[in-house]
Specification:
By secondary structure, the chain is mainly beta. It has a single domain, classed as monomeric porin ompg (Porin), CATH 2.40.160. Helices cover 11% and strands 60% of the residues. The protein contains four helices and 14 strands. The strands form two sheets. The chain has a twelve-stranded antiparallel beta barrel with strand order 1-4-5-6-7-8-9-10-11-12-13-14. It has a two-stranded antiparallel sheet with strand order 2-3. The N and C termini lie close together (12 Å).
């Protein structure tokens, strides 16, 4: 499940589901104190709830995620829907690769046609420890605090590492770079570090998310460093 809460560890679950849950269906429900995506708050610093459902085959997984967001300060809380389809292939005992496509949609939003966009990603994973993702979009929309805005191609690269610890704990670190040159003539870096604890189907995570000075200058409070707490139940 692709979570937008800075919960980078969930990426591992999404790219493993097609093998670990072959021929099965499942999903997850979660909540966080902030909805953070690539270093930026998507909920104006407010709490967000998320849900996901998927069906998995031997190598394929398809599903639908939903979460609460606020695209504009003057708008109320709305819903973001993310249908997705992914294909994963085992390359060796330690390595696997995947490609996925996602569509981001905002039903009920008066600016829906402006905000909706598509992404294609390719990833390479080493065990359940390290994940590299290359992400491209042909039609992303972005706007800054300085009313600089546009719609066009966007590119992101993300590297995530997870280290299992005793007593059901794990530590994770993620770094990323988001290129929005066609939209706002700028790019920025973001990162996340934190701890997670699993109890059977539940995971509680606490992560500190930050961005570089460029993001803070362009997006103001949406890019401020913040502590994100999330609770996820998988079924």
């Amino acid at each position: 499940m692709q979570r937008r809460t800075g919960c980078y560890a969930a990426l591992f679950a999404a790219l493993s589901a097609s093998i670990a849950c072959a021929g099965d269906i499942g999903g997850a429900l979660g909540a966080s104190n902030d909805n953070v995506f690539r270093g930026l708050s998507q909920s104006e610093g407010q709490a967000s709830v998320q849900a996901d459902a998927y069906a998995a085959g031997t190598s394929w997984i398809g599903g639908l995620s939903a979460e609460t967001v606020k695209r504009l300060r003057e708008q109320g809380t709305g819903v973001e829907l993310i249908p997705y389809l992914a294909y994963q292939r085992v390359l060796s005992a330690d390595w696997s690769g995947a490609v996925s496509v996602r569509h981001y949609d905002y039903p009920g939003n008066p600016y829906r046609s402006r905000y909706d966009y598509d992404e294609l990603s390719a990833s390479l994973k080493w065990r359940e420890r390290v994940l590299l993702q290359l992400i491209g979009s042909p039609d992303t929309y972005a706007v800054t605090d300085y009313h600089r805005y546009g719609r066009g191609a966007a590119f992101a690269v993300e590297l995530t590492a997870r280290q299992p610890l005793p007593h059901g704990l794990s530590a994770d670190l993620g770094i990323g770079y988001y290129d929005l040159q066609p939209e706002i003539a700028a790019s920025y870096a973001y990162w996340s570090a934190g701890l997670a604890r699993r109890w059977d189907a539940y995971e509680l995570a606490l992560r500190y998310v930050g961005t570089d000075a460029t993001a803070r200058h362009l997006f103001g409070a949406l890019a401020g460093d913040r502590l994100v707490a999330s609770l996820l139940w998988s079924f």
